[in-house]
Amino acid sequence: MVTNGAALVPQAVRKRARFHPLAVREVRKLTEDSIEVTFAVPDELAGEYDYAPGQYLALRKELGGRELRRSYSICAAPVPGELRVAIKRDLGGEFSTWANESLTAGTVIDVMSPQGTFTTTVAPDASRHYAAIVAGSGVTPVMSLARTILAASPSTRFSLVYSNRTAQDVMFLEELAELKDRHPSRFALFHVLTRERRISDTFSGRIDADRLGTFLEHLVRPHDVDEWFICGPFELVQLVRDTLEDAGVSREQVRFELFTTDRPDRPEGSHGRPVVVDEREGVHTINFTLDGVSASVATALHSRETILNAALRVRSDVPFACAGGVCGTCRAKLVDGTVEMDENYALEPEELERGYVLTCQSHPTSEAVTVNYDA
């Protein structure tokens, strides 16, 4: 953390994505279908788990004989020695269901070092207005951001539009109320319920184009906001981004994060997919560097195997979390050759310009490809 006119909010420093076993210190019920999980961080690993508000953790656990990896946003302002994430039960979600039903204090889970760029910096003398539009568990990273930002600068404001199905589904209800009580003139909170009638029709129903237009006209005016945060289902995130862009808000002022694309027509990550390689039928050669060690692997010419999937066949510690183009954990720099990237919900335009790709979504299109995970 830097003071003296620099950022009070810790900056997101990209760390090598490594797992360490951490013990659960506490499991707290948030709603009927969500919990807050606190991990204890031993002193010797403190540097590995420094984080900026808005970042996420990937959790790894073997369940039913299979390794599962899931990413969850950190929900608390940075506190030495602990990490807190919120886990909401997804319909059919194997990991989230196990966590909500069976996870207890003392359980040891492999936890990856914090990742993600859904964050910002705040100077102590800043007089800025931040705004967030989120749905469901999308509030999780915003809890960390709002708490930290409001504490960092006494003249900074934060506005939050938070959509849920019913009042019973609202995560961090008491914490949000406490934040409002602590900063009544600087924290504006608007609850929207999609399946429960509120006093005002404005806050009753799904956030569609018309309702969003009302919000932006009367509640949170686009040109009064310095930076936006959007987190939720794909359709909501895309609607808000497009609407803000139409209103003249630059893309640089808008940060977004998805937990899932919610789009069945889009390709999923293919990690773990078996691929038969017969070099007589033609192959792509994938060269990659990780932790200063280089390796090569061949992939069948017509298999459309991703770089990540191929790399995992020769090194099991290649970093990834969601494998769906959402989290950015598998990011690497394209050093040589060409690739086709199916989807990208994680890399910023400037990262793309510098040659970074998501290896879980990238397929070689040249005879040889070289990527560097360390860059």
Just name the CATH architecture of the largest domain.
Answer: 3-Layer(aba) Sandwich
Percent strand: 25-35%
- Side by side, the strands of the main sheet go 4-3-6-1-2-5
Top-tier CATH class of the largest domain: Alpha Beta
Quick one: biggest sheet?
6 strands, antiparallel
Radius of gyration: 21 Å
Instruction: Classify the oligomer.
Output: single chain
Shape: globular
Mean pLDDT: 90
What is the total tally of β strands?
A: 18
Number of domain units? 3
How many separate helices? 7
List the secondary-structure elements in sequence, H or E.
EEEEEHEEHEHEHEHEEEHEEHEEE
* Annotated CATH homologous superfamily of the largest domain: Nucleotide-binding domain of ferredoxin-NADP reductase (FNR) module
Class from secondary-structure proportions: alpha/beta
* Low-pLDDT runs: 1-8, 263-270
How far apart are the first and last residues' alpha carbons, in Å? 24 Å
CATH topology of the largest domain: Rossmann fold
Helical fraction equals 10-25%
Keywords for this entry:
375 residues, alpha/beta, Elongation Factor Tu (Ef-tu), domain 3, Rossmann fold, Ubiquitin-like (UB roll), six-stranded antiparallel β-sheet, five-stranded parallel β-sheet, 18 strands, globular, disordered N terminus
Walkthrough of the structure:
- The chain has seven helices and 18 strands.
- The two termini are 24 Å apart.
- It folds into three domains: 19-112, Elongation Factor Tu (Ef-tu), domain 3 (Beta Barrel); 129-257, Nucleotide-binding domain of ferredoxin-NADP reductase (FNR) module (Rossmann fold, 3-Layer(aba) Sandwich); 279-372, Roll (Ubiquitin-like (UB roll)).
- The protein has helices at residues 94-102, 139-152, 173-182, 209-218, 234-246, 307-312, 349-353; strands at residues 19-31, 34-40, 56-63, 66-73, 82-88, 108-112, 129-135, 157-164, 187-193, 227-231, 254-257, 283-290, 293-300, 331-336, 339-341, 356-358, 362-364, 368-372.
- The protein is globular and about 70 Å long.
- It has 375 residues and is of the alpha/beta class.
- A six-stranded antiparallel beta sheet has the order 4-3-6-1-2-5. A five-stranded parallel beta sheet has the order 9-8-7-10-11, sandwiched between helices.
